[in-house]
């Protein structure tokens, strides 16, 4: 990461830390005079022991009495609870007693009284110090862990080091995962551990160490993680190279999305999830952070026909809902890339250097499947595939959004392969994932805006939450985007547009279906260049015809138990050498999400099953040769 984003990231994290500390200080109870009185006791005792031996005892007694009365009045006037007020008065009387004893005692005893007072004050202060109290708390938590592990039936789950106190956010147990277990094992224990520790289920998060799969972490959340990142909600960035604080992880650490890095270039991305899972909220969050960023321009291809972003259409440099116009953009961007590469060669740049006059271009594609499955889909996929290999250097960010299972490969495998930023929202157990590894758990239906993320530098396998942008804030954001001046960039765009040939008719043989709302009742539309000639004739006979299916599709079998399903899974691998999740789903009668969690993921983590992707983007699971030979030999 270049120094500038690092500094900006550090500033954002520092601001969040300062805010969390201020919130923690505000939540503390008002301190009583007990905090300062021990030091006053020691100072007064020393002064009395050194000076009052030459002063008449009556004067000392009178002075101490007056000081005690003044102290009691001060305590009474303080807005303290009755318990704190009583303790403070007791401390005042104790102080007065020690001073009187030091003043009236023989000279030989005064030094002992002074030392005793100082020792009592010091020990009391050490016991009340936040560090001591935090150490005592973590020690108590560590002592309670074996009982909690035994309660959930896994006493072998031992701690690996002291409990980490994260302050207002909560604390973390570092545990040793038993041999042969995975993050799935820890995740299944989250609910029972929450019950054993007397917490809510959503307060417990699990995480596996990326470098050593025997070391895990159980994060206990005592406060809403958004409290510690509240300062980041309304943040804006000055340049596209600054990270975008999307939202907090479950442990309170902010998730920062990098879409451009100096000396590296543009980073494309993709977000996938069910309808209503939070994809549009992510885009609105990015637009909110970029609302005052001068070196970024957005082209928006809306495959949802303006459902969520129709009101934003005047905010972007270009906006369309038509596949044909989107194809024209792709062709213009091809010439645009040529122009920028020539400029970079002339300037001696390795990657594009964004500015207000020559900004980074962000191509956002909502519902990619509409454009990929349109009559122009093959040309769009080819054009974007060529752009994907050049986008990093020329300052072009392609960011797609899709529901699944449709749409993941709608714009071609080259585009998907180049998307290093991947955000996975709730998938509804449809089984199509854009992440490189299965997440530790399924996101629940009620967790809108919750996601897993993989970026170029980070893959925590922990859920995060998008900062929600209220509807009443969006008009102001739209106004900021509409007030942008695109004059300088329009010149660069027009130069590329002049050198681009116009988009032709659909380049494939698929005919577009008639729009049911257009009133067109023609059953066999001819597409953009439909012929007007028709053939008239007379129907002589109607012969019923049955077409056999192209390939048999077996019905899903009855749902098996885990042992039966595991045995059937191994039989499929042994007989066929490789399987897909659909094959396993049909054989064991389970839904695809359960097949992934309980059969496929443990086998991958154990190291004897390898996932690969074919040319169509489908996942194929192949056992390692040693395992396959051993299984076949055993039979």
TrEMBL record:
Protein name (Swiss-Prot/TrEMBL): Putative membrane protein
Bilayer-crossing regions: 34-52, 58-75, 87-105
Segments of this protein annotated with the region Disordered: 497-522
Keyword annotations from UniProtKB, A to Z: Membrane, Transmembrane, Transmembrane helix
Taxonomic source organism: Candidatus Protofrankia californiensis
């Amino acid at each position: 990461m270049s120094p500038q984003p690092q500094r900006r990231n550090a500033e954002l994290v520092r601001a969040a830390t300062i805010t969390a500390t201020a919130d923690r200080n505000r939540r503390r109870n008002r301190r009583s005079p007990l905090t300062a009185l021990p030091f006053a006791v020691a100072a007064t005792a020393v002064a009395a022991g050194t000076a009052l031996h030459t002063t008449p005892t009556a004067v000392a007694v009178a002075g101490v009495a007056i000081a005690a009365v003044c102290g009691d009045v001060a305590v009474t006037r303080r807005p303290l609870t009755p318990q704190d007020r009583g303790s403070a008065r007791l401390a005042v009387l104790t102080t007065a007693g020690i001073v009187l004893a030091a003043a009236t005692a023989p000279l030989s005893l005064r030094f002992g009284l002074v030392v005793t007072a100082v020792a009592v004050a010091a020990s009391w202060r050490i016991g009340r110090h936040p560090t001591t109290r935090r150490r005592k708390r973590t020690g108590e938590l560590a002592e309670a862990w074996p009982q909690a592990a035994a309660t959930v039936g896994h006493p072998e789950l031992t701690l690996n080091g002291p409990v980490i106190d994260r302050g207002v956010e909560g604390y973390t147990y570092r545990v040793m995962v038993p041999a042969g277990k995975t993050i799935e094992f820890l995740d299944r224990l989250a609910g029972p551990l929450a019950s054993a520790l007397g917490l809510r289920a959503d307060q417990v998060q699990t995480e596996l160490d990326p470098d050593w799969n025997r070391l895990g972490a159980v994060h206990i959340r005592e406060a809403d993680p958004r409290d510690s990142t509240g300062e980041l909600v309304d943040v804006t960035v000055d340049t596209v190279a600054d990270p975008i604080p999307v939202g907090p992880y479950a442990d309170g650490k902010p998730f920062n999305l990098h879409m451009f890095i100096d000396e590296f270039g543009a980073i494309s991305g993709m977000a996938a999830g069910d309808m209503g899972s939070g994809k549009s909220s992510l885009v609105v969050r990015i637009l909110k952070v970029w609302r005052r960023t001068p070196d970024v321009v957005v082209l928006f291809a809306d495959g949802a026909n303006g459902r969520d972003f129709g009101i934003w259409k005047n905010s972007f440099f270009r906006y369309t809902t038509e596949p044909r116009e989107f194809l024209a953009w792709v062709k213009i961007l091809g010439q645009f890339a040529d122009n920028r590469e020539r400029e970079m060669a002339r300037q001696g740049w390795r990657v594009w250097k964004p500015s207000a006059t020559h900004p980074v271009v962000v191509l956002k594609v909502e519902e990619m499947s509409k454009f990929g499955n349109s009559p122009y889909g093959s040309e769009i996929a080819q054009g974007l595939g060529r752009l994907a290999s050049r986008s990093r250097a020329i300052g072009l960010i392609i960011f797609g959004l899709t529901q699944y299972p449709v749409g993941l490969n709608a714009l071609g495998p080259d585009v998907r392969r180049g998307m290093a930023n991947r955000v996975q929202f709730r998938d509804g157990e449809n089984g199509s994932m854009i992440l490189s590894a299965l997440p530790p758990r399924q996101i629940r239906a009620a967790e809108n805006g919750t996601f897993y993320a993989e970026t170029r530098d980070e893959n925590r396998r922990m859920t995060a939450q998008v900062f929600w942008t209220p509807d009443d804030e969006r008009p102001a954001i739209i106004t900021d985007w509409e007030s942008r001046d695109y004059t300088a960039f329009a010149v660069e765009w027009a130069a590329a547009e002049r050198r681009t040939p116009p988009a032709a008719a659909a380049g494939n043989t698929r005919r577009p279906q008639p729009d049911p709302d257009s009133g067109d009742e023609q059953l066999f539309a001819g597409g953009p260049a439909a012929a007007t000639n028709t053939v008239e004739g007379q129907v002589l006979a109607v012969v019923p015809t049955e077409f056999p299916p192209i390939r048999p599709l077996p019905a899903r079998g009855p749902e098996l138990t885990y042992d039966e399903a595991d045995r059937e899974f191994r039989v499929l691998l042994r007989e066929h050498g490789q399987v897909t999740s659909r094959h396993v789903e049909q054989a064991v009668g389970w839904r695809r999400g359960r097949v992934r969690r309980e059969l496929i993921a443990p086998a991958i983590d154990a190291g004897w099953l390898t996932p690969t992707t074919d040319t169509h983007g489908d996942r194929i699971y192949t056992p390692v040769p040693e395992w396959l030979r051993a299984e076949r030999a055993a039979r």
